[in-house]
Amino acid sequence: MTIRLNGEPFEIAGPVTISALLAELNIDPRIVAVEHNVVIVKRHQYEATVIGEGDEVEIVRFVGGG
Amino acid sequence: MQSDPLIIAGRTFSSRLVVGTGKYPSHAVMADAHRASGTDMVTVAVRRVNLTDKSKESLIDYIDRERIFILPNTAGCYTAEDAIRAARLGREVGLSNWVKLEVIGDERTLFPDNIALLEATRVLVAEGFVVLPYTNDDPVICRKLEEAGAAAVMPLGAPIGSGLGIQNPHNIRIIKDQARVPVIVDAGVGTASDAAIAMELGADGVLMNTAIALATDPVAMASAMKLAVEAGRLAFRAGRIPMRPYASASSPLEGRVAPVAAAAGGRAGA
């Protein structure tokens, strides 16, 4: 199935939790924030939040800035 | 003089120099520059994770979080809505409710959109954020931001990254005179004297990124900025002399050796 991940189409095998998606992407959940369909998901909800077909996911982190 | 910390929203900072984390030649140089600057607050931006770049080096690993408080910004946002979204994301990443609020109104100058900035400030304050808005050097908008609940106001000295120095010192002084929250001069500093001038005007702090990060030797410039901010602050507290158009002799007039000839006149030396 296809989701939109950081604005781009992204293929995943099937519905996954945010925890599983981050693990697949090799992203440390402690240094990012995740939006699911434009709603911020708290870290303790990553395990319980399932991403489905067509969902929009944004994963952000801190980068250098002024 | 006794210790003179910067206090914003009840949080105490030992340094009055706030430093950015962008544009450095490397993360390692940035970390050294932060150390040299003595800062205990740095700004960061919130951006999408790069899914194709598999390098696992994280900016955060180069910030000494034991000592340094991280202030997320909303840089690159052009509407109140986008800035509010970025602030909420920054809060989730950093688990802190502080935000350097930027709502940009013009691409070339990066001048703030003060109307959207005020609107975003109101929303974020209502959500419990400690809002530090980056704004024009306009006393009226600074007052309105304070009334909206901003924890500090951050007027620009000059456009971001311009290095032009403090373009309107009189406004900065007026903003400081009327403010009941800290005033941080944010943007426009090019070199150490600019930072000193901001502090001499009475600013509570200075925020800079480019002036350090893009200096030929960022670590040395960070040291220079530390000294400049400290010197400017100390000079402000010491109370400078008033400016006057004519000289005022420093050496006594009395007891001078009599002039050789009357024609030499009675002029006092320095």
User: Helical amount among residues of chain A, as a percent range?
Assistant: 10-25%
Structural class of chain B: alpha/beta
Enumerate how many helices of chain B there are, as a single number. Answer: 8
Strand content of chain B: 5-15%
Can you list the strand order of the major beta sheet of chain B? 3-10-9
Total domain modules of chain A: 1
CATH class of chain B: Alpha Beta
Strand content of chain A is 35-45%
Distance between the termini of chain A: 39 Å
The gross shape of chain B turns out to be: globular
Q: Would you report the number of β strands of chain A?
A: 7
The biggest sheet of chain B, with number of strands, parallel, antiparallel or mixed sense and barrel status, is: 3 strands, parallel
Query: Any guess at the CATH architecture of chain A?
Result: Roll
Rg of chain B = 22 Å
Q: How far is the first residue's CA from the last residue's CA of chain B?
A: 30 Å
Oligomer: heterodimer
How would you characterize this protein structure?
The complex is a heterodimer of chains A (66) and B (270). Chain A is mainly beta and 66 residues long. Chain A has one domain: Beta-grasp domain (Ubiquitin-like (UB roll)), CATH 3.10.20. In chain A, 11% of the residues lie in helices and 44% in strands. Chain A contains one helix and seven strands, in the order βββαββββ. The longest helix of chain A is centred in the first third of the chain and has 7 residues, at 18-24. In chain A, 26% of the residues are buried. Chain B is of the alpha/beta class and 270 residues long. Chain B has a single domain, classed as Aldolase class I (TIM Barrel), CATH 3.20.20. Chain B has helices at 27-37, 80-94, 114-126, 139-147, 169-178, 192-200, 210-213, 218-238, and strands at residues 6-8, 11-13, 17-19, 41-48, 69-72, 98-101, 130-135, 154-155, 184-186, 205-208. The longest helix of chain B is centred in the last third of the chain and has 21 residues, at 218-238. Chain B is globular. Classes of the chains: A mainly beta (66), B alpha/beta (270). Chain A binds chain B through residues 5-8, 10, 25-28, 31-35, 40, 42-43, 58-66, and chain B through 20-24, 30, 43-49, 51, 54, 56, 58-60, 70, 72-73, 75, 88-94, 160-161, 187, 207-210.
